[in-house]
Amino acid sequence: MQIADELELDLVEISPSANPPVCKVIDYSKFLYQLKKKEKEQKAKNVKVVVKEIRFGPQTDEHDYNFKLKHAISFLEEGAKLKAYVFFKGRSILFKEQGEVLLLRFANDLEEYGKVDQMPLLEGKRMIIMLSPKKKK
């Protein structure tokens, strides 16, 4: 403690459970600043994954399909993941095969822009397919 007072620094206990306890003479405010700086750098390096959704009906027309396909391409080029789903309402659940064919066709059309993470899967009234962008070379 005398050494810390002489140097006008702080005495920080590093490992209190050790025998004898380990302490360090440092400038505590500078230490806290460096910790915050490291955390900020780590946060900046983390990549935030954005998931965009595109909704289809089981009887989606060609024009609507192409319109949604263009949006999907732009989303994948931005680097966002894509969640495309066919929403069945009422008795349209009878057209499960039609929905699956639509999603597989969608995945096939987006083959050069992204890869399929999850094949079409029926969850309740939705049939979902997940796509992620291909890495740029």
Question: Summary?
Answer:
The chain is 40% helix and 31% strand. The chain has 137 residues and is of the alpha+beta class. The protein folds into 2 domains: 2-45, Roll (Ubiquitin-like (UB roll)), CATH 3.10.20.80; 51-133, Translation Initiation Factor IF3 (2-Layer Sandwich), CATH 3.30.110.
- Which H/E pattern describes the elements? HEEHEHEHEE
Number of helical runs? 4
Question: Under the CATH scheme, which architecture of the largest domain would be assigned?
Answer: 2-Layer Sandwich
Enter the CATH topology name of the largest domain. Translation Initiation Factor IF3
* Mean model confidence by pLDDT: 86
**Sheet with the most strands?**
4 strands, mixed
- Going by CATH, the homologous superfamily of the largest domain would be Translation initiation factor 3 (IF-3), C-terminal domain
Shape, principal axes of CA atoms: elongated
The proportion of strand residues reads 25-35%
